[in-house]
Amino acid sequence: MNIILLGAPGAGKGTQASRISRRFGMPHISTGDIFRANIKNQTEIGLLAKSYIDKGQLVPDDVTCKIVENRLQEEDCKNGFLLDGFPRTVNQAEALERFTHIDVVVNIDIDFALLTARLCGRRVCKECGETYHVSTLNGKTNCEKCNGELHQRADDNPETVQKRLDVYLAQTAPLIKYYTEKGVIKNFTGTDEPPEVLFQQIEKVLEEYR
Ligand code: AMP
After folding, report:
1. Residue 130 C-alpha to ligand 1 middle, in angstroms?
2. Share of the chain above pLDDT 70, in %
3. Whether pLDDT at 113 is above 90
4. pLDDT score, position 28
C-alpha cells in the first residue's frame, strides 16, 4: 500500500502518519523530518534547506524529489510507504509518478481559522518528535512519552506560518484537483477533536486497500 498524506501545515498529517504507520506497518517518510535531520547534522542539503524553511518557502523540487526517490529505493519501502509532506507541488507529483505508483491519497481538509493558533502553539519533543499544544501542557516542558525536552520549531512563528499557509494555497492545494482527477483521493475533515477520532475514519478506509 503506497500512500500520500495531503493537507495544510497544521492539519495533523504528522500525528495521523505516526498512527497509520504503526497500524499498517509501513515506513513514515516525512520530507520535513528529513530536512530537519539534515539541518541538525549540518549537511550540505541541510544548509540549503534551512535557507528556504526559515522563510516558509519550499525547498526546490529537484533537491526534494531526489531525496524521496532515493529513500523509496530502500528495502523497507518494498511493501509500501507513507509519504507525509511530499508531494507539495504538481511538479513533484509528476516526478513521483515517474519512479513509483500511488494507491491512495489521504487528504485532510481543515478550517484555516484553526491552523495559525495550532501551529504557533505547537511544541515538539526534541527526542521522539511527539507533538503537543501549549494549551494542554500546563507549563510542562518535557515529553510525556520519553521525557525529552520540548521545543518550538523555528518555522512555527506567526510570520513564517502565514507564509507557509500562503505557499500551501498557491502550490500544494492544486494537488487536490490533480489527485481527484486521477480518482485516488479520499477526503477527510480535520477538526479540533482528539486525533483518534480522525484516525478511526482513515483506518476504516485504508483497510479496504490491504
Ligand atoms: P513540514 O515538516 O512538512 O511542515 O515541512 C517543513 C518545511 O520543510 C516546509 O515548510 C518546507 O520548507 C520544507 N519541505 C517539506 N517538504 C517539502 C516538499 N515536499 N517540498 C519542498 N519543501 C518541503
Report:
1. 18
2. 100
3. no
4. 97
Ligand 1 closest atom vs CA 68: 19
**Rounded distance between C-alpha atoms, residue 4 and residue 12, angstroms:** 14
For residue 47 the three cell numbers come to 544548509
* Residue closest to 161 by CA, chosen among 34, 10, 47, 30: 10
* Helix/strand/coil (H/E/C) assignment for every residue in 83-111: EECCCCCHHHHHHHHHHCCCCEEEEEECC
Q: Where are the beta strands (DSSP E) in 41-93?
A: 81-84
Residue 209 has pLDDT above 90, yes or no: no
82's grid cell = 507513507
| Residue carrying C-alpha cell 498512527 | 19
Pocket of ligand 1 contains residue 168 by CB under 6 Å: no
Among 19, 55, 71, 153, the one annotated catalytic = 153
Task: Give the DSSP H/E element, type plus range, for residue 139.
Answer: none
Enter the C-alpha cell of residue 175: 494537488
Q: How far is the CA of 135 from the centre of ligand 1 (A)?
A: 25
Length of the chain: 210
13 belongs to the catalytic site: yes
CA of 85 to the centre of ligand 1 (A): 6
